[in-house]
Amino acid sequence: MSVCAVIAEYNPLHQGHLYHLACIRERLGEHTGLVAVMSGNVVQRGDFPILEKTVRTRMALAAGFDLVFELPAPYACAPAETFARAAVDIIANLGFVTHLSFGAETADLGVLQDLSERVPATLPKDISLAAALPKAFPDAAALFTPNNILALEYIRALRGIGITPLPIARRGSAHDGRGSASDIRRHVLSGSVPKRIPFGELWRQELRAGRAPISLMKQEGAVLSRLRRMSMMDFLMLPDVGAGGLAQRLYHASVGARSLPELYRLAKTKRYTMARIRRCVMAAFLGLTDTSPPPHIRLLGFGKRGGELLAKVNTPIISRPAAHRGQLALEASVTDQLTLCMPRPEAAGGEWRKGVVKL
Q1: What is the mean pLDDT of each successive set of 10 residues along the chain, which is 359 residues long?
Q2: CA 214 to chain centre
Q3: Are 42 and 48 in contact (CB under 8 A)?
Q4: Model-level pTM?
């Protein structure tokens, strides 16, 4: 049986994601096993997700996944190369995944593989891939879209481990267009939940309970306070800050900013993307640091065929958080901050009260 993995944030899960899963089944067969490696309670754009991870896990299981694993916070809030390599490392260590599928504007695997071989192993660390790659390869500049760049990182990370890449052409609007995850977040944060949003009942439950929408702006003062107490050396030690001038910009912006949007604006330049600035700020707030490959594999969700697949796992898996407090201390700290960003903040310790989600 084929087993296909998907690396995702599902922030939130939308119609495009459902289309992606339908395409996987069409290509590999209806009985294909589906495994997700999903960002936990922090996401790559340097923010908290709009729904906490157990709710997004429920949505993923309802969409058809058999197992959902967590991409730990230091890798979930990281640039494309680190994000991709950490997630692929988890997938490879499971020992039973045959394919990795991802959405891309260019679904021609040959084209993507050719580009991935042309891209050098090391690129300038102080500018984004989106800026560096078109300059390095002007003949292919139009191909370096955000999803294609992430696809290249997946393909590079998959080299030599025996898992087949399966790109699926993205359908519909642009990355942040109508119906996209960012479009849904904008509507929900403004108080308007789209009528045709997938898993609407789960959304309504979370909204009624005051657990959604989650917004970092509820902790704006705490974030600014943390940054104002940091030294220049503290900023230089942040992951992804690089050896250029970003640490200095963040340091001076934290002194002058009176709001998070102002801080982002003061630190922003053409050289440093907004996503990178937000990741650095989030890393400072949450205490995220550079680490070795993911030290553990944690199970978040278990679907109808989950047992069949788990029987094939050849590495230890964490399924009872309370029994692994040392290994999950950082994730617990992240969750404690996220729950303060809910409309009705929750008490600390939520990481230990919630186990594996079962369909």
Answers
A1: 96 97 97 98 97 98 98 96 96 97 95 86 64 77 88 95 96 66 94 90 96 98 98 94 90 97 96 94 94 89 95 94 96 98 97 94
A2: 16
A3: yes
A4: 0.95
The CB-based long-range contact list for 289-296 (8 Å cut-off, 24+ gap) reads 289/74, 289/237, 289/239, 290/74, 290/239, 291/74, 293/85, 293/86, 293/89, 294/71, 294/72, 294/75, 294/86, 294/89, 294/90, 295/327, 296/72, 296/324, 296/327, 296/328
Closest C-alpha among 359, 9, 6 to residue 184: 9
Phi-psi label, residue 173: left if phi above 0, alpha if psi -120 to 50, beta otherwise: beta
Q: Which residues contact 308 (CB under 8 A, 6 or more apart)?
A: 33, 66
> CA–CA separation, 83 vs 147, rounded Å?
13
pLDDT tens readout for residues 126-183: 666 777 787 777 877 788 898 999 999 999 999 999 999 999 998 754 556 677 899 9
Vertex 171 angle, CA 188 and 67, to 5°: 70
Distance CA 150, CA 162 (A): 19
